Amino acid sequence: MALLDEIAAPRDLRGLSPAQLGQLASEIREVMIDAVCRSGGHLGPNLGVVELTIALHRVFDSPQDTLLWDIGHQTYVQKLLTGRRAGFDGLRTRDGLSGYASRAESEHDVIENSHASTALSYADGLARARELSGDTDRAVVAVIGDGALTGGLAWEALNNLGGAPQRPVIVVLNDNERSYAPTVGGLAAHLGKLRSATGDGASANVFEEFGFGYVGPVDGHDIAAVEDALGRARALGGPVVVHVVTEKGRGWETAETNELDRCHVVRATPPATAPSATAAPASSPAWTAVFSDEMVRIGAERSDVVAITAAMAEPVGLLEFQREFPARTIDVGIAEQHAAAAAAGLALGGLHPVLAIYATFGNRMIDQMVTDIALHSAPVTLVMDRAGVTGDDGASHNGMWDLTLFQAVPDIRIAAPRDGATLRALLREAVAWEQGPTVLRFPKGTTGADIPAIDTTDGFDVLHNAPGRDVLIVSVGPMARLALDVAGRLGEAGVGATVVDPRWVTPVNPTLVEAAAYFKHVITIEDSGRVGGVGAAFGQALADAGIDTPVRNFGLPREFLDHGSRAQVLAHCGLTADAVTDAVLTRMTSERTLTS
Ligand SMILES: Cc1ncc(C[n+]2csc(CCOP(=O)(O)OP(=O)(O)O)c2C)c(N)n1
Ligand SMILES: CC(=O)[C@@H](O)[C@H](O)COP(=O)(O)O
Ligand SMILES: [Mg+2]
């Protein structure tokens, strides 16, 4: 790796000849393919921006000039050019490099939110700040993908940027014609027209109409051409869009020929690790696959059920439904807010929409959930995959805010399946509910074997019953496995524990609240935020009912959780059988001491 080893910082790129730049691009691809196939990560997007990143760092002087990457999943090349080559093999591992841009890692990484369509707003804010402080020599450059540009937030920013001819901001549109799948809708069609325009300036150009200068389209794999385009944009001044055409997965045949998603994400080679109590065996199906299968069955039975995805049909398990029922599958682009409001419209039209997203992106749609869906009692089912700790994608990707946010919505019903069988059953109950919205949440990974109920009472399942009502364990969704493990350990210590699974965690089940009165202690275990989570709601319900059984909540702290495996992050949060058992026994011992 002769050349890449010489690049400690972007300034080292400046003296390289065109031939050396070509060699460097090849070396970067080789390093990324090798490392990311082992660690897992966003290989396709990064293979597509090798030349673009080199050109950006040659034309602009980061961090003096500011480079902002929308989402940040395509910043591996920047990592390799900014002194992080040595850590690259530890990508996405605990204490290793983040899989996204990371402010802690480098002064070249300025934003790290990883939720799409935000970079232009940061750019607008930064440019305004520089204008107000007279610090106008520093360029502000935002790179945004054609997928991220389908998000409404990006257009709010374009509206502001284009209306300020005096403020220089360069928007680099990285157009590879895809999010995961090909980008859809009117914008995709317009970009297609711009890509094939003859350059006579005759055809309409939405960016120019918004007040931007427009440079392009330019071949994003031709470093000299990209540098020339960036230089021209800088010279133009004011807001300018540089339209760069790239190929996702470029230089790796496996990605180039992958019609599904150009290897947007590749999976890690599984390490040989000891099984953990909270992780289900890898041999069982993925939660997403179970959802996918049941959706197809439901679709065949109910012609009013429609599926909505925000540019992630395959990752959220809607691909099979789309193949079976293409007319009843809607891809709105990366547009979660619109997806939710459009779902309300579909429900007003007599259909039952199932909107499937990753839980972290549910944060985007809280207002639509409150005022467009719940206020209108719209029968919409929101399915949140990757709920709870997702782990290796880091702080912004954990689905840990959903219960806190959605529990606050009036009349909402939220279910948390514990295994594949309850996922199927609860999905059916959700789409059968026509009085208002329902939410179904499940985690990343595999389901494990089904966990049978030993009894079902008034809507909740009893999973374990030991004599002596010492502790009632209310377990939420997939935490049932951990709860049963804790109950077993408590039993060995002479403490009788009963484990119940509420299935529908919101609204709080009143029979379960009454049952809590017969126990000395209640503990709740959930893979979501302790603040405003299921445990908090359960404790509140007990207090409201005048039941004074003490409640201890085990869940995720109000913290941004660093990347690592799901098991590592849960352990960091004290969500292991050992930690929970110890905490319960310690509490019981100290109470006994106090009362004796
Ligand atoms: C709000 C939001 N929704 C969904 C995602 C998941 N996601 C990550 S990358 C991606 C595709 C992005 O497409 P594009 O911006 O064109 O970048 P590319 O990967 O093609 O370079 C999606 C949908 C996200 N990061 N943020
Ligand atoms: C949602 C998103 O940004 C993805 O690209 C993510 O990084 C991959 O997540 P999974 O590995 O959970 O599918
Ligand atoms: Mg794209």
**Looking at the structure, what is the overall shape?**
globular
The total of beta strands comes to 18
Assigned CATH superfamily of the largest domain = Thiamin diphosphate (ThDP)-binding fold, Pyr/PP domains
Ends apart, CA distance between termini: 71 Å
Q: Which fold name corresponds to the CATH topology of the largest domain?
A: Rossmann fold
Protein name: 1-deoxy-D-xylulose-5-phosphate synthase
Cofactor: Mg(2+); thiamine diphosphate
Family: Belongs to the transketolase family. DXPS subfamily.
Subunit structure: Homodimer.
How would you explain this protein's 3D organization?
It is globular and about 80 Å long. Helix content is 37%, strand content 16%. By secondary structure, the chain is an alpha/beta fold. The strands form 3 sheets. The protein has a 7-stranded mixed sheet with strand order 7-6-8-9-11-10-16, with helices on both faces. The chain has a 6-stranded mixed sheet with strand order 12-13-15-14-17-18, sandwiched between helices. β12 and β13 form a beta hairpin. It folds into 3 domains: 192 residues, 3-Layer(aba) Sandwich (Rossmann fold), CATH 3.40.50; 155 residues, Rossmann fold (3-Layer(aba) Sandwich); 141 residues, Rossmann fold, CATH 3.40.50. Bound molecules: thiamine diphosphate, 1-deoxy-D-xylulose-5-phosphate (DXP) and magnesium ion. The site of 1-deoxy-D-xylulose-5-phosphate (DXP) has 8 residues, from loops.
